[in-house]
Amino acid sequence: MDTAALSAFSRKLIEQLGCTIEALEVETGHRTTVRVTTPDSKELIGPGGEHLRALNAIAKRMVEHAHGEEASSFFIDVNNYREQELEGVRQNARMFAQRARLFKHDVELPPQSAYERLVVHELFAEDPEIATESAGEGKFRHIVLKYKTN
Predict the structure, then answer these.
(1) What is the longest distance spanned by two Cα atoms in the chain?
(2) Side-chain-side CA neighbours of residue 70 (13 Å)
(3) DSSP assignment of 34-102, as one string?
(4) DSSP 140
């Protein structure tokens, strides 16, 4: 799905939910992100981001149905909420990595979503001292930061 079609689709979906859009832009690159600025962020984000996760799930299913699975690789971010959350995940992972380096021992992170785990794996992909590994199942799936002995 091209950026113009994704922009039009996202705008129509959010407006049908009764929300006002001040700005909407599609950023492509490593991941495609639809950045929405709105005064109705409380309704779109919901408690703990629940509404935003649901909005993304519905939007992806609608795009998959209309354009195929490869077209559904995007995220909708409202008032930069998702990016701020991911930065918090990165900061938390860096703090736990410092513990792993200090104590030269493996450290387990709290359970995370698949996307949050992907962000942490990417964060330490080139780190010479820390390796990442997913462990656990279902909602208890988490990352173990493993200290690499030289």
Answers:
(1) 57
(2) 2
(3) EEEE-TTHHHHH-GGGHHHHHHHHHHHHHHHHHH-GGGG-EEEEETTHHHHHHHHHHHHHHHHHHHHHH
(4) G
Structure tokens at 27: 């950023």
> Per residue of the chain (150 residues), what is the pLDDT tens digit?
788 999 999 999 999 999 999 999 999 987 899 999 999 999 999 999 999 999 999 999 999 988 877 777 899 999 999 999 999 999 999 999 999 999 999 999 999 988 899 999 999 999 999 999 999 999 999 999 999 876
Amino acid at 6: L
Fold entry, domain 3-79: GMP Synthetase; Chain A, domain 3 (3.30.300)
Are 21 and 10 within 8 A, CB to CB? Answer: no
Domain 85-147: state its class: alpha beta
Domain residue spans in the chain?
3-79, 85-147
